[in-house]
Amino acid sequence: MSTRSQNKPPRSPSSKNSRIGDLHLEKRRKVGTGRMVGVANNTGRGRQPFSSVNNRQDAAANAGDLAGTEGSECGTVEFTKEEVEALLNEKFKGKKFDLKGKMEQMNDHIRKLKLCLQWFQEVEEGHIKEKEKLCNTLESAERKCTETEMAMKKMEVELNLLITELTAKTTLLQENLAKEESEKLDAIECQRREKEAKVVAEKLQASLKEELEKAEQEKISANQRVTSLNDMYKRLQEYNTSLQQYNSKLQTDLATTNETLKRVENEKATIVQNLSTLRSHYNALQDQLTASRASQDEAVKQKETLVKEVGCLRGELQQVREDRDRQLTQVQSLTAEIARYRESTGKSVAELDNLTLKSNALEETCSSQREQIRILQHQLAAATEKLKMSDLSALETRAEFEEKKRVMSELQDRLADAELQLIEGEKLRKKLHNTILELKGNIRVFCRVRPLLPDDGAGTEMPVVSYPASMESQDRGIELIQSGQKYPFTFDKVFTHETSQEDVFVEISQLVQSALDGYKVCIFAYGQTGSGKTYTMMGMPEAPEKKGLIPRSLEQIFQTSQLLQAQGWKYKMQASMLEIYNETIRDLLSVNRSSALDLVRSENCGVGKQYAIKHDANGNTHVSDLTIVDVCSIKEVSSLLQQAAQSRSVGKTQMNEHSSRSHFVFTLRISGVNENTEQQVQGVLNLIDLAGSERLSRSGATGDRLKETQAINKSLSCLSDVIFALAKKEDHVPFRNSKLTYLLQPCLGGDSKTLMFVNISPDPSSFGESICSLRFAARVNSCEIGIPRRQTSMRSLDSRLSYG
Ligand SMILES: Nc1ncnc2c1ncn2[C@@H]1O[C@H](COP(=O)(O)OP(=O)(O)OP(=O)(O)O)[C@@H](O)[C@H]1O
Fold first, then answer.
1. Ligand 1 atom 16, closest CA
2. Which residue's CA lies nearest to atom 12 of ligand 1?
3. Ligand 1 centroid vs 577 CA: distance in angstroms?
4. pLDDT, tens digit, for every residue of 615-657?
C-alpha cells in the first residue's frame, strides 16, 4: 500500500470501488472454495484486481486444478490474474508428433479458457449491475437534491414575498403612527398654546378684575363722595332754603318793619296832622295855650317820648337793617358757597361721569375679554376634545400597532423558524451535494466542444465529433471519428458546440457554491490551443450572454454571500491573479508596471522577482510577494480581471489569433463567519485557464514563441505525469517538477473539489490533438484524489478573520 493511501481517511462504504471489491469478496465466499488468494487485498480498489505473477507455472497449474475441480463441482470458477496469465501462457507438453495428446491438452485448454471467459462475463455482468445500481442511487440522490432545492427556492420566494409584504405594512403603519404622533404633537402644542393663552387671558382677567374692583371701589368711593356731596348739597340746599326762609322772614320782618314804619310815619303824619290839628288846636288852644301849655308841655313831652320812641324804632330798624345786611352777606356767602359746592359737585359729577365712562369702558373691555375668554374656553374645550379624540385614535393606532407588532413578531418567529428550516435545508443540500460529488468522484471532468470557426477546415472532411444517443451515455459520451473508426469517451458531462455559456455555468454553479461553504475548489481548462479554454473560462465579458465561468462564478459568489447575510454570514474575499509564463510566476495585479520588463530580464538574465510557492499544513497555498486585493463587489473584481487581462502574455499562433501563452490562475480566498452560530469557514476558489497544448510541428513557432511553446508543453507534460502518478497511486508524485503542478498540488493531490474542462476543437485537422486531450482527460477522470474537506471551525472570542 502506498504512503498516500495510508494517509487517506477510511473510505466510505458508498465508495464505488470498495463496493465492487466487497462484491467480489462476497461472491467468492458464496462459492466457498476458500481460494481467496490476494483478492480481498488486490481488488479492494476495484481497478487492479490482479497482482503481478511471480511464478507463472504455479499459477497455470492452479488454474488447471481449478478448472478440473471447481468448474465441475460448482459451475462457477474464479480466476486470479496469475491464473489467467498462466492459462494464456500455457505451453503444451508431450512429444512433437503426439497429436492426440496435444489435442487432448488443447481441448482441456479450450475448456479452461471457456471457463475463464464465462467467469469474465459474470464479473462484467456484476460490474454492469453495480454500475446501474450506482447510477440509480445517483439519480435518486440528484432528484432528491433538485426537489429539495426547488422546495427551498419556493419557500425562499414565499418568505421573501412575505417579508416584502410585512415590510410594506410596517412602513405604512410606521408612517400612520408618525402621522398620528405628529398630529398628536400638533394638538398637544395647540393645547399648550391655548393653555398659555388661557393663562395669559386669566392673568389679564385677574388684572382686569382687580382694575374693575379698583374702579368699582373708586366708583363706590366716588358714589359715596357723590352721596356725601349730595347730602352736603341737600344739606346746603336745606340750609339755603332755611336761609332763604330766614331771609324771607327777614324780608317779611323788613316789610312788617316797613309797614310799622309806614304806620309809624302814618301815625307820624297822623300825629303831624294831629299836631296841626293840635297846632290849630294849639292856636285854639294857644288860647287855650295857657290853658293848654300844660297840655303842650305834655304834648312836648309826649313828642319827646315819641321821638325817643321813633329813635328807638329807628335804632331798631337800623339793627334790623344791619341784621338784614348781615343776613344778606351770609346768604351771599352761602350762595357763593352753594355755587362753589355746585361747582365742586359739577366737577365730581364730571369726574363721576368720567369714572362711569371709564368703568363702562372697563366693563366693555371686561365683557369683551370675558367673551374672548369664553371663546378661548370654547376653543380649549374643542382642543381638549380633539386631544381626547387624537389620544383615543393614538391609543387605537397604538393598539393596532401593537397588534401588528405582535403579528409581525409572530411572523418573524415563523420567519426565523423558516430560516432555521432553510438553514437545515441548506445543510441537507450541502450534504447531499457533497454526497453527489463524492459519488461522482472528487476530480470530475467535463468535456466541451467548441463550434467550427470560419478558419477551421469545415466541409473539407467528415465531421470528427459525434455524440452517442444511448441513454447510458446521454450528455456524457463523446466519440471521435477518424477513417470510419470511432474512439468513444465518457466523462461526467459533455457539452456540445451548441451549449451556451450559461448552460455550462449551471453545471458548475454548485461547485462554485462549495467555495462559500468552506471547500477548496479548483476549476481548470485544458486543451489544445484555440480549443476554447479562454472562451470557457473568461468568455467575452463585453457581451453578457458570452461571459465565461470566471465572471459568472464571481457574480454568483457575491450574490450568494449577500443572500447568506440574512442567515448571519459575513464574508471577506481576497483576490489574487498570477500567470506562469516560461516557468516564471508573474503577478498580474502588481502595480509595478515594469514587471513585464522584469520578466523579460529574468528570462534572459536569470534575475527578477522570484515568487515562491508554499503550502501550509491546512493545504493552503501561499505565493510570496503576490499582490492580494480585498474585494467586496463583482465590479471591483471585474476591474481587476481587466487589469490582469491587459497584463497577460498573449501572442498570435498559427492556430489562434490571440493565444494565451501562459497559465492564468485566478484565486479567490473566501473567509466567512456566521454571527449567529459562530461558525467559521475558509474556502478557496481557483479558476485556471491553462495555456494551450500544441504540437511544435503544427505551431510553426520559432524563436521566443518556440521557447514559450516548449515551456507550455513541458509544464503540461508535468501535469500529465502528476495525473498518471496519482492514477497509479505511486508513492512519489512529481508535483515539484513544474510551477503549475506545484501550485495545483493541494487541488490535485489534496482535499479539494477539482473539475477539469477538456476543450476540444471539432476541426478535423485537430483530430490528433483532440484524441490526446481526451485520453489525458479520461486518465484524469479515473484519478482519485483525497476526499474534499471543508475548512470550518468555531470562532473563538479573540479570533479574527484571517487566512491560514
Ligand atoms: N463555445 C464557443 N462558442 C463560440 N466561439 C468559441 C467557443 N469556444 C471558442 N470559441 C472561439 O474560438 C476561438 C479560440 O478560442 P480561445 O481563445 O478561447 O481558445 P484557447 O483554447 O483559449 O486558445 P489558447 O490556448 O491559444 O489561448 C476564439 O475566437 C473564441 O471566440
1. 532
2. 532
3. 21
4. 888 778 889 889 999 999 999 998 898 888 887 766 555 555 5
Domain count, the chain: 2
Q: What is the pTM of this model?
A: 0.49
Please give the residue range of the domain that contains residue 130. 3-147
Nearest CA to ligand 1 atom 23: 530
Distance CA 84, CA 67 (A): 11
**Domain containing 630 — which CATH number?**
3.40.850.10
- Residue-wise pLDDT tens digits, 241-287: 777 777 777 777 777 777 777 777 777 777 677 667 766 766 766 67
Rounded-to-integer distance, Cα 728 and Cα 718, Å: 15
Residue whose entry in the numeric block shows the C-alpha cell 369714572: 355
Contacts 24+ apart (CB under 8 A), 410-419: 411/162, 411/166, 415/159, 415/162, 415/163, 418/155, 418/159, 419/159, 419/566, 419/567
Q: Which three cell numbers stand for residue 526?
A: 485544458
Minimum-distance ligand 1 atom for the alpha carbon of 690: 25
- 378 occurs within a structural domain: no
Tell me, in angstroms, the distance from the centre of ligand 1 to residue 228's CA: 129
339 found inside a domain: no
Instruction: Indicate whether 58 belongs to any domain.
Output: yes
Q: How far is the CA of 166 from the centre of ligand 1 (A)?
A: 49
Asked if residue 693 has its Cβ within 6 Å of ligand 1, the reply is no
Q: Is the predicted pLDDT of residue 559 greater than 90, yes or no?
A: yes
- Phi and psi based region of residue 619 (left: phi greater than 0; alpha: psi -120 to 50; beta: remaining): left
Strands (E), 612-743: 613-615, 621-623, 629-631, 650-651, 659-660, 663-674, 679-689
Domain-ending residue, one of 114, 147, 180:
147
Atom 26 in ligand 1: residue holding the nearest Cα: 659
Buried b (16+ CB within 10 A) or exposed e, 440-455: ebbbbbbbbbbebeee
Check pocket membership of 759 for ligand 1, CB cut-off 6 A: yes
Show which of 126, 147, 168 is a domain's final residue: 147
Q: Name the burial class of residue 425, with classes exposed (0-12), middle (13-18) and buried (19+) by CB atoms within 10 angstroms of its CB.
A: middle
The answer to whether residues 579 and 586 touch, using CB atoms and an 8 Å cutoff, is yes
- Tell whether 430 is covered by a domain: no
Compute, in angstroms, the gap from residue 550 CA to the centroid of ligand 1.
Answer: 15
219 lines ligand 1 (CB under 6 A): no
DSSP state letters, 619-656: S-EEETT---EEE-SHHHHHHHHHHHHHHS-EE--SS-
Alpha-carbon distance of 467 to 496, in angstroms, equals: 8
For residue 561, report the distance from its CA to the centre of ligand 1, in Å.
31
Type and span of the H or E element at 145 = helix 99-440
Can you tell me which atom of ligand 1 is nearest the CA of 653? Answer: 26
Handedness of CA 49, 51, 57, 59 (dihedral sign): negative
CA 581/CA 599 separation, integer angstroms: 9
Mutate to test the pocket of ligand 1, among 447, 448, 449, 450 (most ligand atoms within 8 A of CB): 450
What is the C-alpha to C-alpha distance for residues 700 and 706, in angstroms, rounded to an integer?
A: 8
DSSP 532: S
